[in-house]
Amino acid sequence: VVNERLLADLITDLELWFIISWAWFWAAGFAGPWMFPSTFGGDPHLGCSSMDYFSMLADSDLSLNIATITSRPVGEMSVLTARLRTDFNSKLGCIVHKKGISS
Q1: Half-sphere exposure of 66 (CA within 13 A, CB side)
Q2: Helix (H, G, I), strand (E, B), or coil: what is residue 51?
Q3: 7-64 pLDDT, tens per residue?
Q4: Given a cut of 60, is residue 96 above it in pLDDT?
Q5: Which of 30, 95, 85, 32 is nearest to 60 (CA)?
Q6: How far apart are the C-alpha atoms of 32 and 25, rounded to whole Å?
Q7: I need a labelling partner for 41 at 20 to 30 A (CA). Which of 15, 30, 73, 87 fits?
Q8: Inter-residue contact 94 to 46 (CB < 8 Å)
Q9: Which DSSP state fits 87?
Q10: CA 68 to each of CA 21, 58, 76, 80, 89: distance values in angstroms, whole numbers, following the listed order
Q11: What is d(CA 32, CA 24) in angstroms, rounded to the nearest whole number?
């Protein structure tokens, strides 16, 4: 059995239009600051990148697996948290210290 759909069915399908609109607005929301930095206040030339983030994780013997954090003792977690806070502020400061545009 072949299911046929007419072009009119696609055009009038509200669920399809919702998904397409959501995808476009989601993409524009994330791409807007880098495509139009003077309008949205984004900075396409940041001084730090994901490479800095992943090197910071590697230096701390962490990975994206949550077990690398939750399996540690409480005292070690306190020291790790303080060190990560310092590393975030120093190595990823170009992102962490960003503030919204105020008028």
Answers
A1: 0
A2: helix
A3: 888 888 899 899 999 999 998 888 877 777 777 666 667 788 888 888 888 888 888 8
A4: yes
A5: 85
A6: 10
A7: 87
A8: yes
A9: H
A10: 39, 11, 12, 11, 22
A11: 11
